[in-house]
Amino acid sequence: MKKxxxxxxxxxxxxxxxxxxxxxxxSQKEEHTPSPxxxxxxxxxxxxxxxxxxPVTKKTRQTYQWYCTQCHGVKGKGxxxxxxxxxxxPRNHTKASYLETRSDQELFDAISEGGLKIGRAPxxxxxxxxxxxxxxxxxxxxxxxxxxxEAV
Amino acid sequence: xxxxxxxxxxxxxxxxxNHLFNxxxxxxTIAEKLGCLECHRFSSSSDEKxxxxxxxxxxxxxxKKKWLVDxxxxxxxxxxxxxxxxxNFLTGAKIKGHQSVTEEEANQxxxxxxxxxxxxxxxxxxxxxxxxxxxxxKSKIKFERTYGCTACHQAINLARKPRGGIxxxxxxxxxxxxxxxxxxDKLKNPRKYEPLSRMPIFKLSEEDFVSLTKYVLSxxxxxxx
Lengths: 152, 225
Description:
The structure holds two protein chains of two kinds. By secondary structure, chain A is mainly alpha-helical.
């Protein structure tokens, strides 16, 4: 009986250890390779319309500076004060070669839903309850300004 | 003479807090003398500008008294990344060591601080029953993975070492420091206690609000190896 209890405990422990490896903020640095770009159908016109109607304003920049910089750094280079302490480094928003591979909708979802929901690291929190959609679209546009790039 | 006036103020402070006056006027005296008000707000009506330290006008809802008494004598660093409103916060402001006071002053100040409470603050939502082992493991995953709290807050990991981001206050001693009901309310309404909060708003199930609160409460510095 005791033996059974012990082995159950061991299994639970093993599961916890495995899960913890995927957590955010653990000590061990994992090599992080972004998954290859997925070919998608050309963006629908509705997205084009959204881009035009959500320009980057002073408020957009302030929002980025207040919240996102904690991890992404004041210039968006992924070197914010939390960056040495998270398992997966915050994305460098000035890196065109990566951001070109992401559509605006994908960036929108990453900001709104957080990293975990879009198959990225959980250290990227979800901001969908903090900002309205308009603000999040304008943040997407601001990231496009930072990388000086568009989705290809 | 000086000591007597100090004691008199303390008496007035304790005597009137629950009665005629709002805490502010009398209770500020000892805090004022020791310079606390130069950085902290002990009343919500104090000047909003130039806040250089966390607000304390809800200290009685937020802190455990014993922690206050200890902290004021032997301060520990709570915000390794500095205070969020510090102009150098984002470029790596390092927190300066906090001023320390004598045992007697610490006790007096803790009495004063524990009287600073908000009207209508709900107590008794978080009971004292710790999470079961299984629930604790689940909550740990929620804290570290599902909601990514560790990206901004330090907590104790499986190897019993402090790990995590530094932009939010560290939780490695939160169980000794904070009251459960306050953590719960802060999580639900981050902007109520810091209008300029840098924390995301989380819309969680009631169960998750409670279990994350209890997970934070389980963090104590004695558990660090």
